[in-house]
Batch of 2 targets.
Target 1
Amino acid sequence: MKRLDENNLAQVARIEKQSIDCPWSEEVLRKEINNPNFAVLEIDGRVIGYGSYYVTVDVANLNNVAIDEPFRGKGYSKKIMEYLVLKAKSDGLSSMTLEVASTNFIAIRLYESFGFTVEGRRKNYYQSGDDALIMWLRIS
Ligand SMILES: CC(C)(COP(=O)(O)OP(=O)(O)OC[C@H]1O[C@@H](n2cnc3c(N)ncnc32)[C@H](O)[C@@H]1OP(=O)(O)O)[C@@H](O)C(=O)NCCC(=O)NCCS
């Protein structure tokens, strides 16, 4: 797993734009360069996907996890999630939380497969009108 850097930034920004409803721009992503909690999965110099979290006190707040479309359904998001959960654990954090659209069944299944459970719901949270599910995972 690599960090975000000048060489993979443009590829990450392209995947972000293709995958996320309110994508982070390249300028916003640039601020994440060298963030140890921003994991980029590359194969032969090509970015396959990425995921990141920010820390508040002892909680890892997951930002987006996204996989480039041609590489979806091959288990790559699980590798990224495994890395991020282990990293949060080894940094002594107690839990991880995230928000996901209630209609994003693939992502919800991914998170459930790691043991995340739904502990809250924000009505009409997204521009689409979808609710946000708040999911938590205890990691220590
Ligand atoms: C959600 C996303 C990251 C999953 O990445 P992926 O690499 O395709 O997923 P994986 O191949 O690692 O599969 C992980 C789990 O997701 C679920 N999943 C993946 N593809 C699925 C599909 N077509 N249908 C149902 N569940 C699916 C399964 O639970 C799977 O685990 P399993 O194979 O053990 O059953 C990817 O679809 C994506 O980038 N989506 C757009 C961005 C997004 O919605 N991000 C999450 C919200 S921020």
Target 2
Amino acid sequence: MPKCTIDGKEVEFKPGENLVSVAKRAGIEIPVFCYHPGLSVVAQCRMCYVEVEKMPKLQTACSTQAAEGMVVKTQSEAVKKGRAGTMEFLLLNHPLDCPICDKSGECDLQDNSFGHGSEFMRHSEERRTYVDVDMGPVIQKNMNRCIHCTRCIRFGDEVAGIHEMVAIKRGNNIDITTIDGKQLKTEYAGNYSDICPTGSLTLKDFRFKKRAWMLKKTPTVCEGCSKGCNMEVQHEGNVVYRCVPRENLEINKYWMCDEGRFNYQYVQDPSRIVDPMKKAGDSWLVARWEELLSGLRTDAAGASVLFLVGTDLTNEEMKAIQDAARALSPKIQIQSFGTPGVETSGQDGPRDQILKMKSKTANLKGAESLGISPLLGSAKSDVVVVFRGGRAELPRIEAKKAYGVGVFLEKERNFFHAILPGLSFLEKDGTVINHQGVPQGMKRALLPRGRCKSTGEMLMLMLNQRNNEVTA
Ligand code: SF4
Ligand code: SF4
Ligand code: FES
């Protein structure tokens, strides 16, 4: 591999790689604003100045490709002066309102100002001001904080496939907005907020709910479809405040869709059933776990029993259900359910040109790998037990007795005679296999709500009751 020298360190690089990326691999951070590894290079903010031997002027590292024998300095006096000048220029029109800005604590402008700016400012003129713009259900725009890096425009054009963000007017009057002030249309709008290096594009669902530095971060996998986008759940006090994508160049690159980003909301929906419940006439009563588990065990020993396994469950849960069914009765049938019309991975495929897949559950491949055949049509049996993670679409159930085990909302309970509340994807660890066949780990971010139990615990308690009876 060819080599160049950065700040005295010899570094290998791949042909075509730019200096920001080569330096990063060597542990040297070059500050950027307009550069993003998932977007085209425009070199317009001038924050990434470096000095390159034999070149008379400072160079922008994002648009300079490393070359064999190149000698680069990222900390020279000329570089420091250049970056401080860029910061002074960018802050000419930026309000000094970090304490009340939603981006504070995770803002590139704040960090780069602290790391590379000057403590003095020569500018004393009035700053330009704009009113906030409502950009639709996902994004709110504050143009006062914009530094015209155009990441958002390029994200629309190059990733979301929609030219909806534009720069209008020029110079001091420039305005980054949507065409004719229309609302954003893309179903990937949350990414605008992730890539904006300032507090200009904020997520409506999150803004002003929590300071960034108070959030705990758990890396996990989105359960919204069979793509398996890598994401980070940001939470505090057992409440999720937002989900953001995590980089995985093989799967989702740097992005995620809005459906996956906001999917977490059902987990903390006040109508989620978090107590064991049984139907009593037209009403529902809170029940004891022992009562429901022993009822389920007795009913599962019947002649015609169907265990329906959601393709939104993890491999470990599905395997535990298979093992429990074998231990309870050889007559129990097991089938999977998830997305109507996408019963097998052969029927799965892209839902758009970006990330979304047709299967709206994360683990269709996992169910197939365990040999669980899909339910076709409605679920007919004397007893039907539905195990569900939260996203699998409930089929039509024709049964004398139906149990729901897992995550259900109140509006869904009338399908059943009893609900045994389980854990959502944010409350458990486990493995899911995405449409490419890549196994990935889901990580627990939250504690269980109410009296919810894991599928494994419920099955163990149920089998243990049986064993107690056998030995009694
Ligand atoms: S809104 Fe944000 S991403 Fe768009 S140009 Fe302004 S600073 Fe850059
Ligand atoms: S494409 Fe699928 S896996 Fe990725 S964020 Fe959207 S719903 Fe989640
Ligand atoms: S990051 Fe290089 S010019 Fe903006």
